Amino acid sequence: MSSQHPSLKADNTLGLEVHTQKRIVAETPAAILAAWQASQQDQTPFLVLGEGSNVLFLDDFAGTVVLNRIKGITIQDEYESWKLHVGAGENWHELVKSTLEKGIAGLENLALIPGMTGSAPIQNIGAYGVELKDVCEYVDVLNLHSGETERLDREACEFGYRDSIFKHRYQSGYVIVAVGLCLPKQWQPVLTYGDLKTLNPAIASAWDVYHAVCQMRQSKLPDPKVTGNVGSFFKNPVVTQAQCSALLARFPAMPHYLMPEGETKLAAGWLIDQCQLKGYRIGGAAVHQQQALVLINADHALPADIVALARAVRARVGEKFDVWLEPEVRFIQAQGECNAVEVIA
């Protein structure tokens, strides 16, 4: 695609030099709807982005990219909880910080997760023992076909581990415009992961948790403004108890976390690290030296470099552990989103 087409380099945190036919910044649902209707008339692909912190462009995009910048935060002070209505174009980390500054706790474990609030429900973001589904009351979506806004309550969102209805039935033809959060006033710290275990639950404040989370993330995750990345590239794999037991017999030090459904979650970063892949490089793409779960744009990487690296990492982990990693990041081709596992299988 020629250089007269708008660049998306600043709109994807991997910092890949890709282009699109049209790039539109939308501050209202009506602007998103108008852009979609125009793309329908032209019969060209259509994609809505937040901050591009969870996408890998495989090619230049052959249509319209809309940046969702719907702003606005309203807070209702109710008897037992705070109710927040947040525009999809609000930065997630700034939301976490601003709620704490107002004395509202509950989002601190999710500090420093990159991206916009509207992207949070899509993969049910989570970190350090808390997931979006724990605090989400509803998600407002714009139905592009009818032009109406629909409200899905938490149940209807079908949240799973890094999963939701927005990756399935509501993946195309719908755009998230707002998220409703419910934060109980009877706050309880969640201190089950990492350095949070060292905090005393009797005296730890939400700010203590926030600072500990920021410290942990900053110590192992590169800043995308400095080094292009999408945070965790792969999901932590979920295996059966039998599979986990067999692996523990061979690798007794393997971190593992029991899940409510009776399955076991493994640490993808640890699995990759055990394959001695930190610093491993293909073209301009590399596995991060501090955190093996992060693939970085080390030096003017091409999309093909990132794909080849992801494929190599998946194959190496699969050979060693018979555990097959799945990307957490969304893969975008010229015509739209595609199946990430199929691309790197």
Automatic annotation (TrEMBL):
Record keyword Oxidoreductase present: yes
Active site: residue positions: R162, S232 (proton donor), E328
Pfam families to which the protein is assigned, alphabetical: FAD_binding_4, MurB_C
Entry superkingdom: Bacteria
EC number(s) on file: 1.3.1.98
Keyword line: Cell cycle, Cell division, Cell shape, Cell wall biogenesis/degradation, Cytoplasm, FAD, Flavoprotein, NADP, Oxidoreductase, Peptidoglycan synthesis
Pathway: Cell wall biogenesis; peptidoglycan biosynthesis
GO MF entry, a single one: UDP-N-acetylmuramate dehydrogenase activity
Protein name, entry field: UDP-N-acetylenolpyruvoylglucosamine reductase
Coiled coil residues, start to end: none
Protein family per UniProt: Belongs to the MurB family.
InterPro entries: FAD-bd_PCMH, FAD-bd_PCMH-like_sf, FAD-bd_PCMH_sub1, FAD-bd_PCMH_sub2, MurB, MurB_C, MurB_C_sf, Oxid_FAD_bind_N
Cofactor(s) named in the record: FAD
Localization per record: Cytoplasm
Described purpose of this protein according to its UniProt entry: Cell wall formation.
Domain FAD-binding PCMH-type span(s) in chain numbering: 16-186
Catalytic function, reaction form: UDP-N-acetyl-alpha-D-muramate + NADP(+) = UDP-N-acetyl-3-O-(1-carboxyvinyl)-alpha-D-glucosamine + NADPH + H(+)
PROSITE patterns in alphabetical order: FAD_PCMH
